[in-house]
Each structure stands twice: as structure tokens, then as C-alpha cells.
């Protein structure tokens, strides 16, 4: 077969697109690609499909495989960095002076460093995200960031392949439909959780999903939850407030919430300042971190996911310190790094500020925030940097080369949005799972992928932020 693609005639056939739209939305609902609505985010009485592309998006097979293959290296890197207090202290020293949120996290980190646990179990569920850069006319895989905290859509992306397979069949693209990969991150994430639960070693202890008060994306969680229930592992969902009210540590530092012993705290909330509604929420976070429950992630792994750490890891010679005997691993990881630049005070930072001011379109300015919608682009970079260029305020940010993917036409199915052809670009994520106890690594796997696609009109991304939508790779 010729290189698989969605033919232009089809993309322009308005009548057929309308027909496919209706079929696709039903298929999404019937396959469980679901989200609660904006108007009633805490009720399952009214539910809609989660936003998704009408067609899968072409992704070069070699780059897809590169992202999957490198995942286990990133799992190990996260582990090593999270256990390098000296590196974390230095990497975040300038940031925590000006960024109150990171400083609060770092405070908790310092406190728990004083009271290490014996044989602590480490469980990391992460997602490394990439875009395919086409700036020099050739495609290369470039990392956007690693999410070590609450990496989402491992659940819903289990069900999107069936939607795209169905649509391609209806569109008379049977061969293409066979190319849509199976994907089941939820099972892999649950496998890691189940393994850590077993290592914790108490049959009556439960897994606690730490969740927010607005729970629109609950079905994504439920996929993972239900995999745990299928293994007869009990799951409860609680908020920081619940931990504040009833949580305590016994003399062995076992964590109890509502009278139940907690084996694992799986954070799906707690990555944004506004997630901590009061000082009590911070105290609850500290209690959890001090406990012998498995934290997914623990506070040090949370910090490894900051943009500042990402930028410091990209400095020449740094990866080598984490993999002293593995030049091949270092080369593979480094090949995915885009240009990353420090804005710390001093000559180097001044030079980087000047570079961004000269060509703001070529960079992204990033604060230490998660969840989409926080980055600064283009002319706004100029305004923001002009304002803070001589102030330590700038050290709350890092600068990154802007990745320039080649846009392709697709349709984004989203509640309330009339369907229109849009030039789009995609972001590929690889889910990594890592479990270690003492010196024994018990799981180090890539458990699946996520493709998200957005219109090029938007610089920033994020499905929860209402910009990107769920997609599947059509490997070419
Ligand atoms: P967050 O933690 O908020 O998801 P990201 O670093 O992933 O932060 O940035 C959010 C979005 O901004 C990404 O999903 C992507 O669409 C866009 N973006 C981030 N970095 C770059 C970059 N270097 N080049 C192009 N787009 C980027
Ligand atoms: Mg991101
Ligand atoms: Mg992120």
C-alpha cells in the first residue's frame, strides 16, 4: 500500500465529513471515551464524549519507536535525579527564591530528607511528551517535558483506537484502519500500582486516589481504578480536605484516612498552587510525604518534573553524571532535547535574555507550572522579559527553543464546536512505569502512548485546558 494517509478528497468532502462526525461521536460514547460536562463536572447524570480528532494523525514509525524505546531510560533518569539531593538543591536554588509554589514543595522535600524511610518503595507513573520538529526540513523527535505528577489520559487513550478504526472503515480506508495500534496504558499503570501495593504488604490497605474537587476527567481515572478493583485491590478517592480532617500517622508512620490504612497515595491533584486551598492542604501533603505509604510520585520525583530541572539536565556533561558508564544511554536521551536555556542572574542568563528578545518567535518562556496554558510565546515574551530582565523574577522561568512541527489538516470534535478543517500539530506521549524497592528494580516499562492534537492557532496545549484533543498515531 502507498504511504498511509487520509486522502485530500475525503478531507474536503463536507457531506461525508458531516456523516462521519455523527458516527464518530457515537463511537466515542459507545467506546467509553467520556468526560463530564463543564456545567456539571461532578455529576455523571450528564456526560459527553471527550474531545478527539475525527481522523488519526500521521506519525513516522521510527520516531514513534524512538519515543517508546527511550522511555525506560527516562524512568531510570527520574529515579537517579530524584535521589540526588545535591543536584536538586543546586538546580532549584534560584527558582525557589522567587517561585513560592516550588519553594513550598521544596520545603516539604527538605523536611522529609531529614527522616528517611527504610526500604521505601518507589513508584513512578510518568509521561514523557514530544513533538516532531520540522524546522530544518527533516523530522526529529524533541521532548517537550516529562510529567512525573498526575500524567493523565492513560485511561481514555485505551479506548480511542477503536473509534478511529471504526471511522476509517466507514470512510472506506480499511487498510489504514488496520494500522491503528492497540494501546492500553491503563492496564500498565495499574500493573505498577498493583505491584507497589503488594510490596507494601498489607491486604487490608487501600489505594487512595488524591483528587480535586472538580472531577470532570473522572472516567480517565476510573479506567485505572477499575483495573485495580479487577485485581481485588480496594480504591478510595479523597481530597486534601479529607486527609486534613481524618488523616493521621501511627507510631510506625503508617497513614490512615477515614480509618483505612493507605498503601499508596496516587496523586491526581496537587500540581497547581490553587490545588492547595489552605495551609491545611499543605499540612496534609506533608503528612502524606512523611508517611510510609507509597507516594506516586514522592516529593522528590515531583520536583524532578519541574521545567527548571529539565533545563539543568540539558546542560553539557550533566546526563553523564547520572549515567557514567552508559554513553549510549546519554546519547539517546540527549538526542531528544531541544535547546533549553537558564535565565539565572549573571552573564549566561543575560545572554539568554538578549537572545530571546532578539527573536521571540523562536522560543517559549516557561514558568514552573503544569496543566497547560501557562507558557509565554512570541511578542508576549518580549513584554514579559523587558519588564523583568534585570530582576530575579526571571529565574522563576526557563527558556526553550520553540519546536516547529509540520501542520496537517484534521477536524477536532469538541462539545459545542462546529466542525471545521483545521491545520493541526500533534504531541506524542510515552507512559513510563517504574517500581523499585531498595536496590531492586521490579518494573521498568513503557506501558503505552498518547497522541494529542491541537489547532496551530493555539501556541499552548493541554486537553484539560480545552485546547488539545485525543488522537491516535497513524504510523507511516
Ligand atoms: P504543561 O506542563 O503545562 O503541559 P508544557 O511544557 O507541556 O507544559 O507546555 C504546554 C504546551 O505548550 C505543550 O503541550 C505544547 O503544545 C506547547 N509547548 C511547550 N513547549 C513547547 C516548545 N518548546 N515548542 C512548541 N510548543 C511547546
Ligand atoms: Mg505538557
Ligand atoms: Mg506538564
Automatic annotation (TrEMBL):
<dbReference type="InterPro" id="IPR016185">
    <property type="entry name" value="PreATP-grasp_dom_sf"/>
</dbReference>
<keyword id="KW-0479">Metal-binding</keyword>
<dbReference type="InterPro" id="IPR005615">
    <property type="entry name" value="Glutathione_synthase"/>
</dbReference>
<protein>
    <recommendedName>
        <fullName>Glutathione synthetase</fullName>
        <ecNumber>6.3.2.3</ecNumber>
    </recommendedName>
</protein>
<feature type="binding site">
    <location>
        <position position="145"/>
    </location>
    <ligand>
        <name>Mg(2+)</name>
    </ligand>
</feature>
<feature type="binding site">
    <location>
        <begin position="366"/>
        <end position="375"/>
    </location>
    <ligand>
        <name>ATP</name>
    </ligand>
</feature>
<keyword id="KW-0317">Glutathione biosynthesis</keyword>
<dbReference type="Pfam" id="PF03917">
    <property type="entry name" value="GSH_synth_ATP"/>
</dbReference>
<feature type="binding site">
    <location>
        <position position="147"/>
    </location>
    <ligand>
        <name>Mg(2+)</name>
    </ligand>
</feature>
<feature type="binding site">
    <location>
        <position position="145"/>
    </location>
    <ligand>
        <name>ATP</name>
    </ligand>
</feature>
<keyword id="KW-0436">Ligase</keyword>
<comment type="similarity">
    <text>Belongs to the eukaryotic GSH synthase family.</text>
</comment>
<feature type="binding site">
    <location>
        <position position="454"/>
    </location>
    <ligand>
        <name>ATP</name>
    </ligand>
</feature>
<dbReference type="GO" id="GO:0004363">
    <property type="term" value="F:glutathione synthase activity"/>
</dbReference>
<feature type="binding site">
    <location>
        <position position="460"/>
    </location>
    <ligand>
        <name>ATP</name>
    </ligand>
</feature>
<keyword id="KW-0067">ATP-binding</keyword>
<feature type="binding site">
    <location>
        <position position="370"/>
    </location>
    <ligand>
        <name>Mg(2+)</name>
    </ligand>
</feature>
<feature type="binding site">
    <location>
        <position position="427"/>
    </location>
    <ligand>
        <name>ATP</name>
    </ligand>
</feature>
<feature type="binding site">
    <location>
        <position position="452"/>
    </location>
    <ligand>
        <name>ATP</name>
    </ligand>
</feature>
<keyword id="KW-0547">Nucleotide-binding</keyword>
<comment type="pathway">
    <text>Sulfur metabolism; glutathione biosynthesis; glutathione from L-cysteine and L-glutamate: step 2/2.</text>
</comment>
<feature type="binding site">
    <location>
        <position position="377"/>
    </location>
    <ligand>
        <name>ATP</name>
    </ligand>
</feature>
<comment type="subunit">
    <text>Homodimer.</text>
</comment>
<feature type="binding site">
    <location>
        <begin position="400"/>
        <end position="403"/>
    </location>
    <ligand>
        <name>ATP</name>
    </ligand>
</feature>
<feature type="binding site">
    <location>
        <position position="307"/>
    </location>
    <ligand>
        <name>ATP</name>
    </ligand>
</feature>
<dbReference type="GO" id="GO:0043295">
    <property type="term" value="F:glutathione binding"/>
</dbReference>
<dbReference type="InterPro" id="IPR014709">
    <property type="entry name" value="Glutathione_synthase_C_euk"/>
</dbReference>
<dbReference type="InterPro" id="IPR037013">
    <property type="entry name" value="GSH-S_sub-bd_sf"/>
</dbReference>
<feature type="domain" description="Glutathione synthase substrate-binding">
    <location>
        <begin position="205"/>
        <end position="304"/>
    </location>
</feature>
<dbReference type="InterPro" id="IPR004887">
    <property type="entry name" value="GSH_synth_subst-bd"/>
</dbReference>
<dbReference type="InterPro" id="IPR014049">
    <property type="entry name" value="Glutathione_synthase_N_euk"/>
</dbReference>
<comment type="function">
    <text>Catalyzes the production of glutathione from gamma-glutamylcysteine and glycine in an ATP-dependent manner. Glutathione (gamma-glutamylcysteinylglycine, GSH) is the most abundant intracellular thiol in living aerobic cells and is required for numerous processes including the protection of cells against oxidative damage, amino acid transport, the detoxification of foreign compounds, the maintenance of protein sulfhydryl groups in a reduced state and acts as a cofactor for a number of enzymes. Participates in ophthalmate biosynthesis in hepatocytes.</text>
</comment>
<dbReference type="GO" id="GO:0000287">
    <property type="term" value="F:magnesium ion binding"/>
</dbReference>
<dbReference type="Pfam" id="PF03199">
    <property type="entry name" value="GSH_synthase"/>
</dbReference>
<feature type="binding site">
    <location>
        <position position="127"/>
    </location>
    <ligand>
        <name>substrate</name>
    </ligand>
</feature>
<dbReference type="GO" id="GO:0005524">
    <property type="term" value="F:ATP binding"/>
</dbReference>
<dbReference type="InterPro" id="IPR014042">
    <property type="entry name" value="Glutathione_synthase_a-hlx"/>
</dbReference>
<keyword id="KW-0460">Magnesium</keyword>
<dbReference type="GO" id="GO:0005829">
    <property type="term" value="C:cytosol"/>
</dbReference>
Amino acid at each position: 500500500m502507498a504511504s498511509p494517509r487520509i486522502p485530500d478528497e475525503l478531507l474536503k468532502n463536507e457531506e461525508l465529513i458531516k456523516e462521519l462526525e455523527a458516527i464518530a461521536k457515537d463511537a466515542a460514547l459507545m467506546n467509553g471515551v467520556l468526560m463530564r460536562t463543564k456545567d456539571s463536572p461532578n455529576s455523571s447524570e450528564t456526560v459527553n464524549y471527550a474531545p478527539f480528532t475525527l481522523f488519526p494523525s500521521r506519525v513516522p514509525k521510527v520516531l514513534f519507536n524512538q519515543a517508546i524505546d527511550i522511555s525506560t531510560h527516562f524512568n531510570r533518569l527520574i529515579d537517579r535525579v530524584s535521589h540526588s539531593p545535591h543536584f536538586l538543591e543546586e538546580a532549584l536554588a534560584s527558582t525557589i527564591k522567587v517561585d513560592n509554589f516550588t519553594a513550598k514543595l521544596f520545603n516539604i522535600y527538605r523536611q522529609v530528607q531529614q527522616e528517611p524511610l527504610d526500604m521505601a518503595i518507589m513508584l513512578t507513573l510518568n509521561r514523557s511528551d514530544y513533538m516532531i520538529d520540522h524546522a530544518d526540513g527533516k523530522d526529529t523527535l524533541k521532548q517537550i517535558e516529562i510529567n512525573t505528577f498526575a500524567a493523565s489520559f492513560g485511561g481514555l487513550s485505551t479506548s480511542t483506537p477503536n473509534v478511529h478504526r471504526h471511522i476509517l472503515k466507514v470512510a472506506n480506508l480499511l487498510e489504514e484502519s488496520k494500522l491503528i495500534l492497540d494501546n492500553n496504558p491503563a492496564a500498565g499503570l495499574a500493573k505498577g500500582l498493583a505491584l507497589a501495593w503488594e510490596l507494601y504488604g498489607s491486604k487490608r490497605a487501600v489505594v487512595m486516589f488524591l483528587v480535586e474537587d472538580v472531577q470532570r476527567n473522572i472516567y480517565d481515572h476510573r479506567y485505572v481504578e477499575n483495573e485495580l478493583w479487577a485485581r481485588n485491590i480496594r480504591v478510595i478517592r479523597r481530597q486534601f480536605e479529607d486527609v486534613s480532617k481524618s488523616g493521621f500517622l501511627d507510631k510506625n508512620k503508617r497513614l490512615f484516612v477515614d480509618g483505612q490504612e493507605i498503601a499508596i497515595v496516587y496523586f491526581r491533584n496537587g500540581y497547581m498552587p490553587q490545588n492547595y486551598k489552605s495551609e491545611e492542604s499543605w499540612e496534609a501533603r506533608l503528612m502524606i510525604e512523611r508517611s510510609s505509604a507509597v507516594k506516586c510520585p514522592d516529593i522528590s520525583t515531583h520536583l524532578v518534573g519541574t521545567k527548571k530541572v529539565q533545563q539543568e539536565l540539558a546542560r553539557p556533561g550533566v546526563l553523564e553524571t547520572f549515567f557514567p558508564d552508559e554513553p549510549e544511554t546519554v546519547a539517546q536521551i540527549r538526542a531528544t532535547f531541544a535547546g533549553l536555556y537558564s535565565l539565572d542572574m549573571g552573564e549566561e542568563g543575560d545572554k539568554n535574555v538578549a537572545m530571546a528578545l532578539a527573536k521571540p518567535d523562536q522560543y517559549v518562556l516557561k514558568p514552573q507550572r503544569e496543566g497547560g496554558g501557562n507558557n509565554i510565546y512570541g511578542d508576549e515574551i518580549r513584554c514579559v522579559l523587558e519588564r523583568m530582565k534585570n530582576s530575579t523574577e526571571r529565574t522563576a522561568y526557563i527558556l526553550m527553543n520553540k519546536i516547529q512541527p509540520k501542520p496537517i489538516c484534521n477536524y477536532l470534535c469538541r462539545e459545542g464546536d462546529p466542525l471545521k478543517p483545521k491545520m493541526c500539530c500533534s504531541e506524542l506521549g510515552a507512559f513510563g512505569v517504574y517500581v523499585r524497592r531498595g536496590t531492586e528494580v521490579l518494573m521498568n516499562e513503557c506501558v503505552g502512548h498518547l497522541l494529542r492534537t491541537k489547532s496551530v492557532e493555539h501556541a499552548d496545549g493541554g486537553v484539560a485546558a480545552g485546547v488539545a484533543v485525543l488522537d491516535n498515531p497513524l504510523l507511516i
